[in-house]
Design brief:
Elements: E1 2-8, E2 11-17, E3 25-31, E4 36-41, E5 48-51, E6 55-59, E7 65-69, E8 74-78, H1 89-93, E9 98-99, E10 103-104, E11 113-115, E12 119-124, E13 128-133, E14 139-144, E15 153-156, E16 159-163, E17 168-172
Antiparallel strand pairs: 1-2, 2-3, 3-4, 5-6, 6-7, 7-8, 9-10, 11-12, 12-13, 13-14, 15-16, 16-17
Length: 179
Amino acid sequence: GLINWSKKNNKLFVVSFNREADIREQLTCREGEEFNVIWTYNEFAFRHYAASDDYILLKDDKGKLVALDTSGQELWRLSPIDTGLFSSQSEIDNLPETSPGFGHLNQTLHFPMIYQNRIGVVPMLDHYLIGIDLATGKVLWTRRVENSLSSLRQGYCDEVYCLGNYYLEAFSMETGEQT
């Protein structure tokens, strides 16, 4: 069944669920008046995505990322270890499930964002936000969100705002610096 969709330029990106496949989530690109299928991507079990004019950024709840171009070609994959934030898988496996007042530490909830069609801003494990060059997969910046939740955030202009119980933190999407 249909889960989610978005439209960029003349393309409609549709996330659907296939109960019979090994990887159940699939992203389909459709275009034209008849919404003809141009391509389908189902090689990564993603949970959330963001689309821009040139890129699609997929993420799962455990911090893995995949970038596609709008022709459906995979550009790169990134794991939490690839970000430089964690030294080993055992460090990730030993993250506590929750932290009082801060929710999940061992999951990355909610959607990634795309800033100016070139930087992916993504919640990462252990309350980090990361900025990624969408063309190369290079991590441009990392920022630990100290007083709010990296998953409860909203982008506006050139900032990302993270909300906590008594805090609102703002960070530059370009640099990750607190504003």
